[in-house]
Amino acid sequence: MILCAFEHHQSLALRELSEAGLWDPQGDLQAITDKHFKGGRALDPQRLEAFRDDIAERCARIPLGHILGYADFGGRRLLVGSGTFVPRRQSLAMVRWIELNLALTCASTVYDLCAGVGAIGLAIWAATAARTVCVDNDSTARTYLQRNIRRLDAQREVSVLAADITRPEAFATARGRVDVVVSNPPYVPPGTELLPEWGEHHPPGTIYARRQGAELIVASAVCAAGLLRAGGVVLIEHGETQSREVAAALERHGFQAIHHCRDDDFSDATGASVFTVGRAP
Length: 281
Ligand SMILES: C[S@@+](CC[C@H](N)C(=O)[O-])C[C@H]1O[C@@H](n2cnc3c(N)ncnc32)[C@H](O)[C@@H]1O
Fold this sequence. Notes:
The chain is an alpha/beta fold. The protein has 2 domains: about 5-60; about 70-280, 3-Layer(aba) Sandwich (Rossmann fold), CATH 3.40.50. Helix content is about 40%, strand content about 20%. It contains 11 helices and 9 strands. The chain has helices at about 5-20, 25-35, 45-60, 65-70, 90-100, 120-130, 140-150, 195-200, 205, 215-225, 245-250; strands spanning about 70-75, 75-80, 110-115, 130-135, 160, 180-185, 230-235, 255-260, 275-280. The chain has a 7-stranded mixed sheet, with helices on both faces. Strands 1-2 form a two-stranded antiparallel sheet. Strand 1 and strand 2 (about 75-80) form a beta hairpin. The longest helix is centred in the first third of the chain and has 15 residues, at about 5-20. About 40% of the residues are buried. The structure holds S-adenosylmethionine. S-adenosylmethionine binds near residues 91, 114, 116, 164 and 216. S-adenosylmethionine binds near residues 87, 120, 184 and 185. Pfam families: Cons_hypoth95. InterPro entries: DNA_methylase_N6_adenine_CS (IPR002052), N5-glutamine_MTase (IPR050320), SAM-dependent_MTases_sf (IPR029063). This is Methyltransferase. It comes from Pseudomonas bharatica CSV86.
C-alpha cells in the first residue's frame, strides 16, 4: 500500500508516540495534528517542521497542554503554559459532586484554593453561577487565571486572590461567609516517582508539598474551617493513599460527615480521581 505524504507522517508520529510510552498516543497525535493541519493537509516544509517539533517534544514527555498552549476541562478551553499546572480530568469529579449534591446559586460564594489556571473554580462558576474566588500564590498561575476569566467573560463573578493558603489571615474578611471551599493542592510527597510529565516537566511547586505531602492538605482544612459558614462544605482532592490523613485534618478542625469519594468516570491511566468531603459544624 502506498501512503500519501500526510498519512506517512501521521503513521510515523503515531509509532514514535507509542514507543515513547504515552498512555494515549492516538489522542495526542490528534490534538497535535489539529494544531497544525486543521486548515488542510498541505505539507509545506514549515508546517511539517513545526508538527515534527511538537511530536518530538511530546515523545520527550513535555505535557500535551504545554505543547498546545491549552487544556480542555469540562467543555471549556483554558490557556495553560510551561509555568503552570495543566488541569487534570480527575478534578472534574469534585465539580460533578457539587452539581449533584449542592444547590448553589448566584447568591452562593465558593473559594477555589490553589486554583492554578482556574479550572475547578471556573467550572463551578459555569455550572452554578456562584461568586467564585480563585486563590493562588504563584504569579504565573494568576496571569493565566486572569486571562481565562476574561476569555470566559466571568470577570463579574469570578475574582483572583493572591494569597498563600498557609497564611489563613489573608482570608479574614470572608470568615464564616463562604458556602463551598474546594482545593486541589500540591499533595505529592517529596521524592515520589511520577510520570515525567508531572515529575520532571511541571513546576515542582504545583505538584509536591513538603512534610510527606500533607502540608497543603492541612492548610486547606484550616482555611476552610475559617472561611465556611455553618453547614458549608469543603472538598479536597488528594492521592489514593492519603484518605486517612485528610480525614484526620478535617476532624481536627471540627468538620462533620467526612467521607471519601472515588469517581471512576474521571479516573484514567494517569491516576484515580479521589477526594474527601466534609461539612462545617
Ligand atoms: C496541583 S495545582 C492545582 C491547580 C488547579 N486547582 C487545578 O486543579 O488545575 C496546585 C496549585 O497550587 C498553587 N499553590 C502551591 N502552594 C500554594 C500555597 N501555599 N498557597 C496558594 N497556592 C499554592 C500552585 O501555584 C498551583 O497552581
